[in-house]
Amino acid sequence: MVTLGHVTVAQTNKDLFVSNYPNGIYTSKEDFINKKPNDTSALVPRNLPGKKEDSLALDQNTFFYTVNADKKLKNVFAVVYHNHIFFNVAAILSNRNKTDRSQSHNNPNSFVGVLLAGNNYMYTEANLANAWAQGFAYGMGGAVGGIAAQGMVYGKGIVWDIKNNEFNIFKNCKDYNDFIKDKYPSGVQECKNNQADVLRARTDLKNIL
Q1: DSSP state of 11
Q2: Residue 208 located in a structural domain
Q3: Is 143 a domain residue?
Q4: Mapped to the 3 state alphabet, what secondary structure does 61-115 carry?
Q5: Which of 32, 73, 95, 100 would bridge with 26, disulfide CB 3.0–4.6 Å?
Q6: How many structural domains does the chain have?
Q7: What is the rounded CA–CA span in Å between residue 176 and residue 179?
Q8: What is the pLDDT of residues 115-163, one digit of tens each?
Q9: Residue 132 sits in which domain range?
C-alpha cells in the first residue's frame, strides 16, 4: 500500500498497460472516446466485493469504491486509475459487437484492466460465460447444475475496437481465429480446446494493436 494524503492506493500492477488517458471516471462511451473524464472523485480498488479493506495490490479484475461515500462504483463506462484503464464489465456487455451476444458475468459491476494497447485496439480479459448454455446448466438443478454452470466461465479475451467504438469478445477459439486470420495469419490457432490460448493470443495480438 502507498498512502497519498488521506487516500491509500494499491501498488502498481506491472501487467497492466500504462496509458496517457487522464485519471478519472468516464461515465459514458463518448467521455472515453474524447478522453474527458466527467468525475475525478477519489477511488480505491477492492478485489473482493463488500470488503472494507482496500486492495493490497491492483488486480486486473477489481471493483472500485468512492473514497468519500464508500460506495461501489456502478453504471459507468470506464475508470482510469493511476494511468491504468479499467473497463466496466457491464459496459463491455452493453457495447459489444452485435455477433457477441449471449455472454454473461457474475459481477457486471466489476472492472477489468487493459493489458495491451495500441492505435487500433485495447486488449483485456474477463471471466465470461455463454448465458444460454449456463442457464441450461443451472436448469439441471441442485449442486450438479451449479457446478456445471460455473465450469462454463472462462478468461476470455476482449478488444476495444478504437475505430468502430465497440468491444469484440472472443467467445471461443474459432471466434478468435475469425478475428485474427485476416489481420495476422500466423496468429491462427489449432483450437485443440474450445477456448483460445490467451497467453499465445496476448503475444500475437501485439502485432496488430
Answers
A1: B
A2: no
A3: yes
A4: EEEEEECCCCCECCCCCEEEECCEEEEEHHHHHHCECCCCCCEECCCCCCEEECC
A5: 32
A6: 1
A7: 5
A8: 999 999 999 998 875 433 333 333 334 443 333 333 333 478 999 999 9
A9: 2-171
